[in-house]
Amino acid sequence: MKIDSINWEILQCLQENARLSNAEIGRKIGLSSPAVAERIKKLEDYGILKGYKAEVSYEKTGYQLKAMITLKAFMGRLKPFMLKVTEFNEVLNCYRITGNENIIIEVVLRDQIHLQEFIDRLITYGEVKTHIILSNLVENNPIIDQAQLDDFDV
User: Fold this and answer.
1) Are 106 and 112 in contact (CB under 8 A)?
2) DSSP class of 138
3) With 0-12 CB in 10 A as exposed, 13-18 as middle and 19+ as buried, what is 152?
4) Side by side, which strands form the sheet with 65-73?
5) Tens digits of per-residue pLDDT, 12-57?
6) What is d(CA 72, CA 77) in angstroms, rounded to the nearest whole number?
7) Which of 37, 46, 55, 108 has the most CB atoms less than 10 A away?
8) C-alpha angle 42/34/6, rounded to 5°?
């Protein structure tokens, strides 16, 4: 599928507000509503648009602490951890990474006690380092076509 400048404009609109109607997107980029719908369907079919979601305020739902936690797994504990991490409700994102640590986890927690309890669950798998997030400088930054780079095929 070709991601041309029009598809990039549609992606930009949806990343800014996934609830925009096809007609609203069409007005912004100069296409008819059916043309927008057809392009969105193709973007979905090719897996470029993976889904739509609600953005929830963690603070207003009782999760006052956000942290990044790295894990350097003990010998033989990486695979068991990778299976277990899917059961941790506190985890927003978890990545297997290169470098000194094996894993980086983004979590939301109610408070320091909740953080302590969460770390206690992790330390059976490896060495843990915690970085408490003080504020967001950039959040959910949209992917954009950098200066209308040459079109490319996916």
Assistant:
1) no
2) S
3) exposed
4) 91-96, 103-109, 65-73, 126-132
5) 999 999 999 999 999 999 999 999 999 999 999 999 999 998 889 9
6) 10
7) 108
8) 55
